[in-house]
Amino acid sequence: MTFPLLTLSHQQPFWKFRTHRVIANTTESTRNLCKSTLYLFLALATPFIAYRCFNSSTMFWSSSSSSSSSSSQPATKIDAESLRRQRINSSKLYQPDTSSKVPVIYSSYYDISFLGIEKLHPFDSSKWGRICRFLMSEGYLEKNAIVDPLEASKEDLLVVHTEAYLDSLKNSVNVARITEVPPVAMLPNWLVQMKVLYPFRRQVGGTVLAAKLAKDQGWAINVGGGFHHCSGGRGGGFCAYADISLCIHFAFVRLNISRVMIIDLDAHQGNGHETDFGNDERVYILDMYNPGIYPFVSACFLYLYCIFSKDNSPHLLVLLLFFIRSFQDMTARNYINQKVEVGTGTTTDEYLKQLDEALAVAGSNFAPELIVYNAGTDILDGDPLGGLKVSPDGVIQRDEKVFRFARERNIPIVMVTSGGYMKTSARVIADSIINLSKKGLIETNVHGGRNIMI
User: Fold this and answer.
1) φ, ψ dihedrals at 115, nearest 5°
2) What does the domain layout of the chain look like in residue ranges?
């Protein structure tokens, strides 16, 4: 006997109805799982967001009050500047003997490694050592010719940073927020100081010292440094100390330099040093960056939540985080003297063309006595955070153009390596330094106890 196929409508078989229900249930389960994950993220992120709000409002009102007090109480400002000069003059960061060294600065303490936790951030925290090993293995650098910098002390850091900000680093939760590695929040702070912040402070010492070496020998490269997201009162983006700002203030006092140009070619906006020197006419900032990638993480979570959520109520927390980061960046963006925005997907030829034009404009607008070059390699094609499509050879050409710009004008130049989130970054940086040596823009050999610039 043959039974007719059970149907629910004119032509719809029962098995199709069950398939539709399974698909619907699966989709709903996936949506609920994603929502639960994002709710968990928001719950964990709420303390960070609250801190960010408090920190931002504190910075805003303190800057407002300082502006009003500076006009009504100029003596206070003078006293603060005197204290800054006193700290700079008493610092030991310029003390290392460099007479028989080349102006390449590195310490084995730069590299960050602790039980693999450092791998939770996309930044390659061992690239600094690998750069030097590449240079030594190919005969362009001798180990005993590398300058080993001192650690920046608290008094050194207070030249730029507030006491409140430095005290905030005694809380591992705050350090976790700045480094963007959540498990750091669960570590005892003495361990965080030793394994995370000490390497950063050593790199700060390297950037500060680089200015002195550049003044003496025409150029200097700190294999680390370039923490351009950190300002005097706020850290972030894996940047805990404002080494660029510190380097410049030391140069003002100890090297008698009065005009500095920052050339920031990291893919991200240098919102830290821009905040610090926003109204300082002694500093000219050329920042060439991708405006569509920062704050990247906030935008991603907002996008994912909007896809999987049916209601809008929890959007406010993510939007608040996104708004705060965007507001801070937009405020700092107003302080850029020469803004060059390169969109996602920009290729090598277009990037280098825009750089040539930017350098020509900068050279005609400002005559610096020192250049601080933030040479991030996150512009490389394939970098997960940069969004640009510049080839390794393009990075090498970029660095050559900047050094040639300085050399043609006889301006001392400091290079820091900044961001770069691929394992290939170290090789590219080493190849770029080798190219600078081959082109005669730097000299990494020691002749008679003194580095000679060809």
Assistant:
1) 55, 25
2) 93-164+203-306+321-439
| 187 Cα distance to chain centroid | 23
113-118 contacts at long range (C-beta below 8 A, 24 or more positions apart): 113/195, 114/191, 114/195, 114/196, 117/181, 117/183, 117/184, 118/181
Q: What is the pLDDT of residues 170-179, one digit of tens each?
A: 999 999 888 8
What's the pLDDT score for residue 68?
39
Using an 8 Å Cβ cutoff, are 426 and 380 in contact? no
Quick: pLDDT tens for 320-347. 545 555 555 678 888 899 999 999 999 9
Active site residue 447: no
Distances (CA, A) of 91 to 155, 198, 209: 8, 17, 11
Catalytic residue among 161, 228, 229, 249: 229
Strands, E assignment, 217-301: 219-222, 260-264, 283-289
What number of other Cβ atoms are within 10 A of residue 323's Cβ?
14
Fold of 93-164+203-306+321-439: Arginase; Chain A (3.40.800)
